[in-house]
Amino acid sequence: MKDNEARQVGRQIPITSDLDIVEARMAARTLAAKIGFTGANLVMIATAVSEVARNIVEYAKPGEVILSVIENGPRRGLEVVARDNGPGIPDVAQAMVDGYSTSRGLGLGLPGSRRLMDEFYVDSKAGKGTTVTMRKWVPEK
User: What's the gap between Cα 105 and its chain centre?
Assistant: First the structure.
C-alpha cells in the first residue's frame, strides 16, 4: 500500500470449500456496490474473486480472502487479498499465461482475474504459499 492510501478491512472470509467461494463472491459484490461500483464492474469483481478463491480450494486450501475498502485521495476502491500457505506457484510468469494450467482447467484463472481488475500482484514462494492482491477503483463520474 502506498503512503497516501488508507485501508478499512470490510470482511475476512476463510476459504476451504466451494461454498466459501460463493460467500467470497457475494461479499465482494455487496461491498463493491456499497462503495459505488455498478453494472459490469460488479460482475468483473465477483468473477475475479471467484477465480482466486477457486485457486485456493483447488491447489492450496485452506486460505482466506480479505476484502478492504481503499482510498487514495478522492479515489475509492476495493482491495482483494487472497492468501494461502499452500505449495506456492513454481513459475508465476508461466501461471500468468492464458491457457497454462497445472490441472485440467482452461488456464484462465489468474490471467483472467488480472484483466478484470485495475491492479494485480502475485507473491508466491515454493512451500510457503501464495498471496494475490487485486484492486479495482470506482470509476470517476
Answer: 18
> Domains in the chain, ordered, with CATH?
5-137 (3.30.565.10)
Please write down the long-range contacts of 94-99, taking CB distance under 8 Å and 24 or more positions apart.
Answer: 95/122, 96/122
Written in H, E and C, the secondary structure of 44-112 is HHHHHHHHHHHHHHHHHCCEEEEEEEEEECCEEEEEEEEEECCCCCCCHHHHCCCCCCCCCCCCCHHHH
Instruction: Report how far apart, in Å, the C-alpha atoms of 30 and of each of 10, 57, 70, 75 are.
Output: 10, 22, 15, 19
Instruction: Provide the whole-model pTM.
Output: 0.87
C-alpha cell recorded at residue 110: 489468474
Q: Check residue 104 and give its pLDDT.
A: 46
